[in-house]
């Protein structure tokens, strides 16, 4: 039932859980607390636009209702069985090594089976998932990562097929197929996996050596979750935290949903991105809360070797009704994006106290398939973000040649197979309060300018105690404070109904902009 123009949308239904979204125009939260009822019984009050229901019965029809939004009737899925992990010997006491018991239970599950983790702390090393199963992690249940690196086997980046000699891909880190430690929750070449519940998956890196001397490691650190060439994966409700490296890393996978989850890591923890889908097709990130030590979401598609070999862009990604806090970038594209990024929509989100809001990182050398196009940000609230919009084609981290003449010269170089391309970007209906460094900083390449940028219906204001900083990570960067909108090497720029209040200096700075429309 629909009331006026407001309704409840069903996002996902498993055998024992469901996730819903209030269809309104409000970023992240409803304008007031609301009450959720199930089959006529009041369950809880909530304010976020996305909510979940748990502990449902399989193959059962239910009706959820929210006053002012109407009701929605849904049916939970069937399942073949549900078994308790303790029946396979898991202690859940936080001290016993439960790895073998949990893995045995996973191995024994039939297709359509569900493995239940009741309240307790399950101390575990990496677990390998298989197709057609559900992990149901109850409230107050914790999967706690083992702190001994020796318990995390090394997965090769590639291994040759014994018959053809062709590379089979397994491990990855920062855009390359390289050896890595097996991740805590690990699946390769699998499909139809659900991880649901109100429990926690804790990488426990704060009590290990994973965050120490990270640049000296020869084998990439594990993630809390890694999905390689998987399909139809849904993670709903759980809290993920304290990963040794990126928290959740889907890789060359398709049909992924991350719904109503939260991801946490200390602000000073190294490379603890919340969610980094790499070369994936069809990713929904809806109703999530991220607060980490690096980028909250980083959409990637590999460095140049993977880009040339597979030409697999990050495609059809939707980010909606999420809250990003304290990370380097709220939503980042790159810098490993040699396969390209296209068809990205980010809407109805809040970014609080991140270094940057939108953060595009690319550079010479990413290659001709490194095309970013069709990116739309709309209905976004930012509060305390240092620089809300950054498009940087001079990113200078992570690669051995980052200080080379090729990557530092501002001279116009020939366009060749190493040259990336940035297409059309639209930013509309945004309120950016308490900025610090600059309102907007977009810097293209002289030989390959950014094709088109539209900013419309946006307001920028500055923090009274604004701090200076670098708007983008690039060579020869200059610190700014309360700067306006800066654009360099852009073919077409449209600025429509944009206010910049309280900046030091001019509101709009343009260099090498071929066509400027200002209204």
N-C termini distance: 42 Å
Mean pLDDT figure: 96
- What's the total number of strands? 43
Provide the gyration radius in Å: 23 Å
Gross morphology is globular
Q: Determine the strand fraction and express it as a percent band.
A: over 45%
Unreliable residue runs: none
**Biggest sheet record:** 28 strands, parallel
* Secondary structure category: mainly beta
Tally of individual helices: 3
Describe the structure.
With 519 residues, the chain is mostly beta strands. Among the domains are: 7-75, Immunoglobulins (Immunoglobulin-like, Sandwich); 306-519, no CATH class. Helices cover 4% and strands 49% of the residues. The protein is built from 3 helices and 43 strands. The protein has a 28-stranded parallel sheet that branches. It has a 4-stranded antiparallel sheet with strand order 4-3-6-7, with no helix packed on it. The protein has a 4-stranded parallel sheet with strand order 12-19-22-25. A hairpin with a 2-residue loop joins β3 (29-38) and β4 (41-48). It starts with 6 loop residues before the first strand and ends with a strand. The model has no long low-confidence stretch (mean pLDDT 96).
Fill in the keyword field for this structure.
519 residues; mainly beta; Immunoglobulin-like; 28-stranded parallel sheet; four-stranded antiparallel sheet
Summarize the structure.
The protein contains 3 helices and 43 strands. With 519 residues, it is mainly β. The chain has a 28-stranded parallel beta sheet that branches. A 4-stranded antiparallel beta sheet has the order 4-3-6-7, with no helix packed on it.
